[in-house]
């Protein structure tokens, strides 16, 4: 399963688990296209809202793709 936040983001740097990481994300259609371009077969997709338990943190929509090798 692959998960992304539905945003058009490139080269976003932020701290995660005390490390600075770099991330990218894509709109749902582009994300699915990239999964297929990597040679995987998309078997299902769904969206869900993640609500962080941290004060001031905004809920974020996650897009989940289940895929397998053909």
Q: How would you describe this structure to a colleague?
A:
By secondary structure, the protein is mainly beta. The chain has one domain (2-68). The chain contains one helix and five strands; from the N terminus they run βββαββ. The chain has one helix at residues 28-37; strands spanning 2-5, 9-16, 19-25, 41-50, 60-68. It has a three-stranded antiparallel sheet with strand order 1-5-4, covered by helices on one side. A two-stranded antiparallel sheet has the order 2-3. The longest helix has 10 residues, at 28-37. The protein starts with a strand and ends with a strand. 6% of the residues are buried.
Q: Write down the oligomeric state.
A: single chain
% residues in beta strands: over 45%
* Overall 3D form: globular
| Protein structure class | mainly beta
Task: Kindly state the number of beta strands.
Answer: 5
Query: What number of structural domains do the residues give?
Result: 1
| Helix proportion range | 10-25%
Brief digest:
With 70 residues, the chain is mainly beta.
Observed structural traits:
two-stranded antiparallel sheet, mainly beta, three-stranded antiparallel sheet, 1 helix, 70 residues, 54% strand
Task: Note the topology.
Elements lengths: L1 E4 L3 E8 L2 E7 L2 H10 L3 E10 L9 E9 L2
Antiparallel strand pairs: 1-5, 2-3, 4-5
């Amino acid at each position: 399963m692959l998960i992304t936040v539905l945003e058009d983001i490139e080269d976003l740097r932020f701290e995660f688990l005390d490390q600075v990481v770099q991330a990218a994300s894509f709109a749902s259609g582009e994300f699915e296209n990239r999964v297929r371009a990597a040679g995987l077969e998309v078997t299902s997709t769904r969206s869900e809202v993640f609500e962080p338990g941290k004060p001031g943190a905004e809920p974020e929509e996650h897009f989940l793709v289940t895929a397998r090798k053909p």
